[in-house]
Structure formats: structure tokens, C-alpha cells
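Model: You mentioned two targets. I'll fold them one after the other.
Researcher: Yes, keep them separate.
Model: Target one:
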Amino acid sequence: MTVQEKPYPVVSLVVDTFGDWLKHRREMREMHEMDAANFSQIAGELRMSPNDLEELVRQGPHAADELPKMLIALGIDQEALARTEPHVLRDMERVCSMCNHKRQCDRDLAAGTAAKHYEEYCGNADTIDGLGPRVHQ
């Protein structure tokens, strides 16, 4: 067995998940300890309201994990989008983070049917449909 193999994948998953949870709790505590002026300034720099920023932090670091998968499923080059429309990509990440249709999205992505159905539930559908040809693969 090589060093890179994990002999207990379930245990490793539990440890990693618990570590992520602890990190998220620490981030939440830091956010609540920050004074309102600094928090509002950070939110302003990110071009969002303090309430939206608080909600994003509350959602955790993996809240927008579906977006890169969706972009791939739709033939959109995320790197090109980041280069040409960084604010659009950031807004798409925000929308994805706060989405209430994660289960449907995950099912469609796993089944390979996301491109057929995303317009039915995706909060980014209008933005995706409005992207120009320079971001399509």
C-alpha cells in the first residue's frame, strides 16, 4: 500500500467532514465578533449587503460546489468567464450559494440531465442564457 492510499476511507471522510465543520464554526464566530462597521465595509467591497454576506458565510465553504459542475455540463469555460466577466461569476456563485434547489441540481448533474432541466429551477438560468459565445467551450 502506498502512502497516498487511505486505508479507512469512511473514517477519513468523517474526520474531514468534522474538520470542515469546526472550521466553519470558527468562521461564524469570527464573523459575529467583528464590529458592524468592518463587516459592512467588507460586504461593500464584495458588492453585496451585510445580510447577504452573513448568509453566504452561514452557508459554508461548499455552498456553491454545484456551479462549476453546472458550467461544465453546459459547456461554459469557467476560467474564460472568470477572465472576461469576474463580477458575473462572483454573482453566480452568490446565487448558487443561496439556492434552495440543491437536491434537484445534484440529481440532474449526476444523471447528466442538467443541461436539459436547469432552466426549470436554477437561479442563474437567465445569466447563463445571457452569456456570450466567448465563454462557451
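Model: Target two:
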Amino acid sequence: MSSIEQLHEKIPDCAKDVRLNLTSLVADETLSPQRQYGLMLATAIATRNAALIAAMESAAAAVMTPEAIAAAKSAASVMAMNNVYYRFVHLVSNTMQPRLRMNVIGNPGADKSDFELWSLAVSAINGCGACIDAHEKTLRAAGVSSEAIQTAVRFAAIVQSVAVAIEAAGSTPP
């Protein structure tokens, strides 16, 4: 049984729709395997759910290079920082220099558009409108389709719902 199938088993019956959405996410063929599994890994990291992260990393390892896996992890990490900072800047209209290191954005170790898509999806989970807007504009300028952009955010929504469903199952009394 694959790690994602094991994850599927952890989703409680009260979250049947989440289980069905996870199945459709894995079966989705609209994105390249690197984009698809990079999205699943980066967004799993953004949920901070250990079981979900482990399952997605295991699945990603079967189709992604170690460099691409590192890039997906970098997208989640740098967006954890940027989403907090730029959400603050947006809310208070701050124009000061951020003084944050984010060199990985310029040289992510994977396809730049893939990294931007992963960053967009993580930003959606973290709720940073300024980052969502910036990544969406960069992706459109790079010729990434509206369908791919929407699919990335759909993946983020599904992965987040899997994390919540697993947490809900764990909080149910025996």
C-alpha cells in the first residue's frame, strides 16, 4: 500500500468528500508529475501535519529529483517567512525594505514556473493576498495557463482539507 493510500485510510468517514478529493488529486493529469507532486509536498509542509508531509514526501520521491524535492521544500519554507511579512506590509501599508534573505526565489533548483506555482499554492494556504497576487502575475507573465494556476490552488485546498480531516480523526474519542 502506498503512503498516499495509507493517508487515505486515515481520513474519517465524516470527511468522505475529502477522501474523494484526495483520490482525484492523485489521479489528476493536467499538470506534469513534477508540478503535481511538488504542489502536494509544498502544500503538505504548509499544513504542518507530520503524517501528511511524510506521505507526500514519499510519493514525491518516486517521481521527482532530489533537487526538485528540495525546491518544493524551499518554496514552503520561504513562503512561511514571506507570507507573514508581506501580509503585515499589506495590512499596514508599510513601505520599508524587508531585509529578508530570499535568494532561493531567483535560483530555486527547479523549473522557475514550477517553483512559482508551489509558492502560490503555499501562499493560498497561508492567506497572503499580496504574495498570491505577485505569484499569479509572475506565472501569467511566464505563460502559465489560468487552468494550471487554478489547479494549483485547488490542490492547496484539498491538501489543507486532508490535514484538517486527519486532525479531526485524531481528536475523536475512542
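Researcher: Noted. Anything on target two?
Model: The radius of gyration is 16 Å.
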